[in-house]
Design brief:
- The model has no long low-confidence stretch (mean pLDDT 83).
- This protein has 19 helices and 10 strands.
- A 3-stranded antiparallel sheet has the order 1-2-3, covered by helices on one side. Strands 6-7-10 form a 3-stranded antiparallel sheet, with no helix packed on it.
- A hairpin with a 4-residue loop joins strand 6 (303-304) and strand 7 (309-312).
- 52% of the residues lie in helices and 10% in strands.
- With 467 residues, the chain is mainly α.
């Protein structure tokens, strides 16, 4: 039988529950304890009734073998679970770091301090609702200098180098901050505003406030939280997963970002004036639909010129903690062969000759590796460099925003619309199963189905009418 002890406190009354679960080897009683505190206003009678029910549930959990961990917080257990999943090979290092980053930004500040058993479905629902509010998205907020800030700097008895030294800021950063239209991080501008004893808004224009987080971002955060609490159920710390009963936003079914054929033509035309290393790489993106890390990790030994194929067997990634580049498995941990056209084979041969010439020019400065795409000194190329180059390339040629994944979406959409079956497209893209491809490219599948319907109509109905 559980015993209940009332514990008065400055912030309300709590109830300590103690249950005896047997004796140890010396005959000493083994006791498990926990505490309960009302999470809403209650009368003394209501609180006592709820406490008795909580005590009965706690005792039942112990009888069924559930662990009584009254001290472990969500943050502690989340980090343990992420490490467990990574060491067990269930997730990659990059996925583990991505999940931890999302939790530290969104979940830990709200529920990180809470004990696992205190997290209720309504707790998570409230978290997701707050994430969906305008202004929840902090990334993308920046400030620009107002004329009042520029005037203040000019009228200051100290020059910019002296001000930068007093503030503890780099001179170049302060100089850029003063320039009209230059973007500055709000936290850096806040330091300067505090130095002058002025409100931030009086010296800087704030941009990007009020933007909201995407539904997919909120759903991804929910899935990470749910997987962690699911592990707690598996380890018999919780009796059920509160995330399974929380209310989450309805997923947006927007079509993925992809290019129209004429846009691809404009990109190819612009590439003609660019260095051969980038011309070759972007063409390879277009004709294969490979992921960014897969192209960065491609090796010459995996290029079959005669068979017109490349073997995708790894992916280059960046360790978010150390910023080091490392080679890991593909997203699905599977190898796959991808066919390439004759034109791509010719371009790769031409590029290889150019790379060998560059290697001779570099001499001792060249770092030996088998990677197809490298920096000027032969070192492996970070996947992030590709994104940066494409951003500058699109700005340089007046093209729409380009990211490597858009080429992947374009390849898939074109293949499906042209009647290539889902299984073949799924294998080409390296998806774990065809249903993943069908879900992502539902817009293209629907278009292909309409085309098939029109084809049947032409053959079976319209032909009959003509007859």
């Amino acid at each position: 039988m559980a015993s209940i002890q009332k514990i008065p406190g400055a912030k309300g009354t709590a109830y300590k529950v103690v249950v005896t679960v047997g004796r140890d080897g010396t005959g000493k009683q083994i006791r498990k304890s926990t505490t309960w505190k009302p999470d809403r206003p209650m009368t003394a009678k209501q609180a006592e009734k709820e406490a008795r029910q909580f005590a009965a549930d706690f005792e039942k959990q112990l009888e069924q073998g559930f662990a009584a961990d009254d001290k472990q917080t969500f943050e502690e257990y989340a980090l343990y679970t992420l490490d467990l999943r990574y060491k067990s090979g269930l997730i990659t290092l990059s996925t583990r770091q991505l999940h931890e980053r999302k939790l530290r930004i969104r979940a830990f500040p709200v529920i990180g301090h809470m004990r696992l058993r205190d997290i209720k479905p309504q707790t998570l629902t409230s978290l997701y609702l707050d994430m969906a509010k305008p202004g929840a998205r902090k990334k993308g907020v920046y400030v620009t200098a107002k004329p009042s800030f520029q005037k203040l700097m000019e009228e200051s008895p100290l020059n910019m180098k002296q001000i930068a030294k007093e503030i503890g800021m780099c001179y170049d950063s302060l100089w850029k901050m003063k320039q009209t239209g230059k973007h500055t991080k709000p936290e850096c501008a806040a330091v300067v505003a505090k130095y002058f004893g002025r409100p931030l808004e009086s010296l800087f224009e704030i941009h990007g406030e009020g933007s909201t987080l995407s539904t997919s971002y909120i759903l991804d955060t929910h899935r990470v939280i749910s997987s962690i609490l699911s592990q707690a159920v598996k380890e018999m710390i919780l009796t059920f997963n509160p995330a399974s009963r929380a209310t989450v936003p309805i997923e947006d079914n927007h079509a993925p970002n992809y290019f129209q054929p004429e846009q691809i033509g404009d990109i190819l035309d612009a590439l003609e004036t660019e260095p051969i290393v980038w011309r070759t790489m972007i063409n390879l993106f277009i004709v294969t639909g490979c992921r960014r890390g897969e192209i960065a990790g491609l090796k010459w030994r995996n290029v079959n010129f005669e068979g017109k194929q490349i073997l995708i067997d790894c992916s280059l990634k960046v360790n978010e903690d150390t910023k080091e580049i490392y080679e890991g498995a593909t997203k699905t941990k599977k190898k796959r062969y991808v066919n390439i056209p004759s034109e791509m084979v010719s371009l790769l041969k031409k590029y290889r000759v150019w790379q060998m010439e560059e290697r001779l020019k570099a001499g001792d400065r060249w770092t030996e590796s088998d990677y197809v795409f490298t920096h000027e000194n032969g070192e492996m190329m970070a996947p992030t460099c590709i994104y940066t180059w494409l951003y500058r390339f699109s700005r340089r040629h007046g093209l729409p925003h380009i990211n490597p994944h858009a080429f992947r979406h374009t390849a898939a959409s074109i293949l499906i619309s042209e009647g290539v079956d889902i299984v073949t497209v799924s294998k080409l893209l390296g998806h774990s199963k065809p249903s993943t491809t069908a879900d992502i490219y539902a817009h293209a599948v629907e278009g292909a189905q309409r085309k098939a319907t029109e084809c049947l109509t032409d053959i079976l109905i319209r032909k009959e009418k003509k007859a």
